[in-house]
Amino acid sequence: MPWSRSDRLTAFYAALTAFGTYVFIFGFRKSFTVCTFEGITVGPLTYKTVLVIVQMLGYLAAKFYGIRYISSLKRVGRHRIIFLLTGISWLAWLLFAWVPAPYNAIFLFMNGFPLGMLWGVVFSYVEGRKSTDLIGAALAVSFIFSSGWVKSVGAWMMKTFSVPEFWIPFAVGGAFALPLILFVYALEKIPPPTAEDESLRQPRQPMQAHQRRAILRGYWPGILAFTMIYLFATIFRDIRDNFSADMWKEMGFSVRPTVFSETEIPIMLLVLFSIGAVVLVRNSYRALQIAHGFILMGFVIGGICSWLFMRQQLSPFYWMIGSGLGLYLVYIPFNSIYFDRLIASFSLKANTGFFIYWVDAIAYVGSVSVLLIKESLSLEISWTDFFAKAMVGLSFIGSLLTLQAFFYFRQLRKQGA
Fold first, then answer.
1. Residue ranges of domains in the chain
2. What pTM was computed for the model?
3. What is the CATH number of domain 5-414?
4. Sign of CA dihedral 264, 256, 31, 181
5. Measured in Å, how far apart are the chain's first and last C-alpha atoms?
6. Among 45, 48, 28, 141, which residue's Cα sits nearest to residue 88?
7. Helical H runs in 189-315?
């Protein structure tokens, strides 16, 4: 059935609302990464690395808890959950500013745990629709835009108003609070999926423990492959996200407040229009194949750009754009179209929240482990060199895993599973 004017308006409204909601949620999350906290150490570790690790441990705990909580989330009272979790995360930044370093690092866990639950709550408003590809892409690219914009806002506050580094996260959260309230109100006004949506994309219902176990047992080869892909993508996305300010300094550039947005906005637009266009593909299995194509392309782009940068054939600015584009072409499909189309392709009695919190839980174990290994071994390598060299290896391994997942689900389709 062709899209009606009402369908288009609902899709555009939901995409804009989901995008805006998560952009302003992100304001409570990552603004501290624009700060360097120079001269502060905690034993052998730099203070900033400790902050990143503790916040990641909060996310990690949230992802494991979210496998059950988000997959069984009811569709009522979700706006109150968003306000409660965001409020706790903002309170954590107030305590972080009040308590002296390094003892205030513990509040990064208090910040990370509630924020780690919020993606699943927001996505539950938009999954299971024929327009979910477009809406999900808009929601997912909010990571890219907000990652750069939040840092730019934090850097601007430091430069313009001389806000101390320890107060930056709380100040940015305060600036984002009112817009967040307005967007959550708008989120509540999104109409529920129609009968046509449910016929095309499979009705989405809360999952019980036995249903989660059955999915993991029945599809474990494919789940293992895409979990490993997501693990690698998350590790390197987090390194780029958390230490981009450090990498710019290592490459000899003074960090302008706008540089973070200048690199992320082109990536956001390319990814949004590429992945959002999958909404035009009605056949869910064909769309799943296309998602594998995007992921494979992302690994190749990230690897080639990093190899050229290491050979000094690509400037730092375009390397940051190219490596980011590659990583987000891998990362964003999982947060928008991959699981939604997987459920519809094989008529799974599941929801997207279950899959994303499963892979996120494993991925954050990897991210924390990599940071701890690098710092505890006192490796004499900069974040720039570490990131560029590892991206080349990641490109090769990730491409093989993507092909494995592609052929597994193709064989499953042929068997009529």
1. 5-414
2. 0.83
3. 1.20.1250.20
4. negative
5. 26
6. 28
7. 195-201, 209-218, 220-250, 259-276, 284-310
